[in-house]
């Protein structure tokens, strides 16, 4: 999930400085990118045999803190908190995941064809004038 969010953030950043023609192409290919990413993630899950979920925990950490200023600084042990992220395995129904993967792979040519048509529409709409 985090990868998808990172990709979305990059595309959003790219789209914010893109020309209207580039934005049109990005929008036209959005479903294709999502389908390909979903296929990639499902294939990885099938290959591993289990799912991965990223969790973030708020973990206490013992450290040294300071109180006071100048010559009257006192050091003492204190607890601070950090965020730690880790991948956790979970069981999946491989038959269901494999069926979903096969469905997406079957759907991919149609999604690619739609993307090609949409990109062609963008190119004709934003054709540079001589």
UniProtKB/TrEMBL annotation:
This is Uncharacterized protein. The keyword Signal applies. Keywords: Signal. It comes from the Bacteria. Residues 1-23 form the signal peptide.
